[in-house]
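Notes for week 9. Today we move from apo structures to complexes. The key idea is that a small molecule is not decoration. When we ask for a structure prediction with magnesium ion present, the ligand SMILES becomes part of the input, just like the chain. The input block below holds both the sequence and the ligand string. Read it once before you look at the output, and try to guess where the molecule might sit.
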Amino acid sequence: MGKIICVSNQKGGVGKTTTTNALTMGLSDRGLRVLSVDFDPQGNLSFSMNAVCRNDSEATVYHVIKKECRITDAIQHRDACDVLPSNLLLSALDVEFTGAGREYLLKQALAPVLSQYDVILIDTPPDLGLLTINAFTAADAIIIPVLCDIYSLQGLIQLNDTLRQVRLRSNPNIRVAGVLLNRFNAREKVSGVVRETAASIARSLDMPLLDTIIHTGVALTRAQIQQENMMRTDLRSRAVNDYRQLVDELVRRGVVRTDA
Ligand SMILES: Nc1ncnc2c1ncn2[C@@H]1O[C@H](COP(=O)(O)OP(=O)(O)O)[C@@H](O)[C@H]1O
Ligand SMILES: [Mg+2]
């Protein structure tokens, strides 16, 4: 059965899409069958994976949820992985589904293909609204990328409140795989303080702080713009190697299994 991991943080620009993309490629390099789900109406993950749906009638995760097509018809196949794309249409979900059970839409949509993948990664929008709640409801685990600044770290408290609600209402089993420090710059004088503060806030919320830290690296941005495989784009890039280490750490912590 596929393990579902969502990458989430209500703040924009913290590295959710970058992390989803890098983990998709990194886990696929380990021989795992990976489905990468874009659950953000901005469609950034779809773009970086060359799975853009410009035409309103092209099948996306939105059409699957609306039961206008089967999930297998919306999934696009790439060399390394499969992608379930999204576009702006997804933003309508909030007003179109108002009744009971609206937090289970994504979980139900993914159910038919769960056995076909080892890992399903979900990229989420920068808020704690219905789409993110759907991702939390579907997921076994969550990875939370944060920038190395105090406001980003304080945002964890709000995110934790939402997680608590989800555990009570729709998914008692979701666990935090870890908080991931992103865009770390070891040369900055405050970097040590950032790490300590992150550790202390994560501890107070009972969330593990991942040992792996993602350094700032232009190779990541370039790969996304050029729609290249992020893990192959620049083998000397420290940030790319950080993501490789993150895959190792997720295996070590039992978040994903490579021997399934
Ligand atoms: N470690 C990093 N080093 C350099 N650029 C990064 C890094 N992480 C993310 N970025 C860049 O920052 C921007 C925002 O990242 P993104 O993953 O889109 O954030 P989010 O999905 O949380 O909004 C993108 O242009 C991305 O390429
Ligand atoms: Mg994003």
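The longest strand covers residues 175-184.
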